[in-house]
């Protein structure tokens, strides 16, 4: 039955991405992933994806001409910028957050660590204008380039049937999002074991780690695994005791200032990436809901071995550091003060050193074949 | 020439100013009665059930619930005038539990008015609780034109309390259980009702009255002591008032009802949720029909289906905003058109069933 459902899932996926199937190398057959969600008004074509990739790599869309989307979402680094803790934009200015991978971002219910953007199209609008990312005053310089550059003129005509003033940021971000939707990756040893029925795909240690992942470690409650597919995220936001732990005494002042000051989303975007203390308020800065204080989106764990460092602020260097933090019940150093707003699911786990190693081994088995080499280099194995 | 007039005028003016200034505090109170727009806010936290394990160890989950509610209440803007704690600070009435809970409550930036719950009471009959909070078991105060009363509604018969149990600890454990045939129904009792009658006698009948109790001053479900045996007698003392509200803890869920002039509001627990007792089918219940189901708790997220309340007292009517973790916040407010509290978010008009007139 499991196998049967798996074939249905794959068939659905192929159907949904029929137009782009030719782009997918055979190695990235998406075992373990659900059908790709594609917005009705942004259908995938190979030409659109190629245009999106060109835009993604173009450094001219920054005030210094030195930063592109790929500067922080580097295809050579599983679309992150490790080992940087937080990203570097124009003039080596640093933000406050660790670049999340583009891989499988197509499946997320919202974008950015705090979910302040609803989808890939909207997300692509904002880093262009953030003063510590690409630093443009507005989107006009991008439109000037895509409306006059001969290669872009040809591509936009071909993909959207548009030229000159007809081209707006809508088409620019649709193309970028279409490219990003091709960056899906499954087929990890875990997928071959759990969905492919390949008993030997995981080692004994990885299997022990899997058991800890769904039982004593409580990981699966947020990093979800379903019967037919696994995104390793619940698309929700949790305070897990990272970042907020460093500003505990300042929360009343910071939260108070945020409640009083009515900021636009654009101003919030600038504020949280330029002020670390404000950044640590997490999703509260977006919703002003107490439930969201210090909370950030559950990231996927697919290819996590290739995307160090970890957490929204890059504060954990290794997967082991991450597990130790959770084992301590939401504090990096055992015995530290647990923050008042800690999410209800986080509590001490009582894992032994060997069990921690097993859990790390399991997470290292979530790597897709195309990132195996990078993961091995990143984790020093 | 006539130079005395301006002086006299100044003097009269001055005298008038002095007179007005000296009566100013009273004027404010009168204004509060006269002006229906007068409103203020307070917060309500309840049912923390702080539970001692051994030594310095307490049940972590219950601690986290109270710590979080306190920290969040301190972030409220505008600042609430005070906080009510609705009872069951402790799980088994122990000093360790009451001390630990009071220490957490002491971090509130506001004055706290505590209510006694059965879990605070039945070990030493509220002696240490009174000592700790420097409060009688029932009391009243006035605030900005509203008369507030705290009742001790979790008393029961003298026989059950004083004669039936070999140890205080066993008495506490018996009262802590649900569906316990050895339990006994809660009551306010005659002595306290006499005190309440005398207390309310001094209050003008157009003054809004808000009563805080631990158990509901209405009869909902006896098996779980969602019940006060002399509820009707207490209600009768509130009936002469234009506006009366009862806010109770104990039930760990959202409930609201209107009986005559009295609006009833239940509050959430910070510890754990109780299901709606209608789910328990082995005994007959006299419960308002369930029209807005509680969100079922996800056991992984320990705070799910718990919460605390932010209360806006507009013209003496309670507007109860529930701060609910992992769920959409809800508001239950008095609707002057229908004359009853209503859930402003969840109830679709078509699915609405009017709250019952009586239990």
Please give a quick description of this structure.
The complex is a heterodimer of chains A (381) and B (359). Chain A is mainly α and 381 residues long.
Supply database-style keywords:
heterodimer; A: about 375 residues; mainly alpha; Cytochrome Bc1 Complex, Chain D, domain 2; 3 domains; two-stranded antiparallel sheet; 16 helices; disordered N terminus; B: about 350 residues; alpha/beta; Purple Acid Phosphatase, chain A, domain 2; 2 domains; 6-stranded mixed beta sheet; 10 helices; 15 strands
What does this protein look like?
The complex is a heterodimer of chains A (381) and B (359). Chain A is built from 16 helices and 2 strands. Chain A has a two-stranded antiparallel ribbon with strand order 1-2. Chain A is mostly helical and 381 residues long. Chain A is 37% helix and 1% strand. In chain A, helix 9 (204-214) crosses helix 15 and helix 14 packs across helix 15. Chain B is an alpha/beta fold and 359 residues long. Chain B contains 10 helices and 15 strands. The longest helix of chain B has 19 residues, at 4-22. Classes of the chains: A mainly alpha (381), B alpha/beta (359). At the A-B interface, helix 10 of A face helix 3 of B.
CATH topology descriptor of the largest domain in chain A: Cytochrome Bc1 Complex, Chain D, domain 2
The Rg value of chain B, from CA coordinates, equals 23 Å
| Shape category of chain B | globular
Query: In order across it, which strands form the biggest sheet of chain B?
Result: 5-4-1-12-13-14-15
Please give the count of helices of chain B.
Answer: 10
Layout of SSEs?
The complex is a heterodimer of chains A (381) and B (359).
Chain A: H1 2-16, H2 46-57, H3 69-72, H4 120-123, H5 140-148, H6 150-160, H7 169-180, H8 189-194, H9 204-214, E1 237-238, H10 251-260, H11 265-274, H12 276-279, H13 284-287, E2 296-297, H14 319-327, H15 353-364, H16 372-379
Antiparallel strand pairs in A: 1-2
Chain B: H1 4-22, H2 24-34, E1 39-45, E2 52-54, E3 57-58, H3 60-73, E4 83-85, H4 95-105, E5 112-114, H5 118-121, H6 127-133, E6 139-143, E7 146-150, H7 158-163, H8 168-176, H9 190-201, E8 209-213, H10 231-238, E9 244-248, E10 256-259, E11 262-266, E12 307-314, E13 317-324, E14 330-335, E15 340-343
Parallel strand pairs in B: 1-4, 4-5, 7-8, 8-9, 9-11
Antiparallel strand pairs in B: 1-12, 2-3, 6-7, 10-11, 12-13, 13-14, 14-15
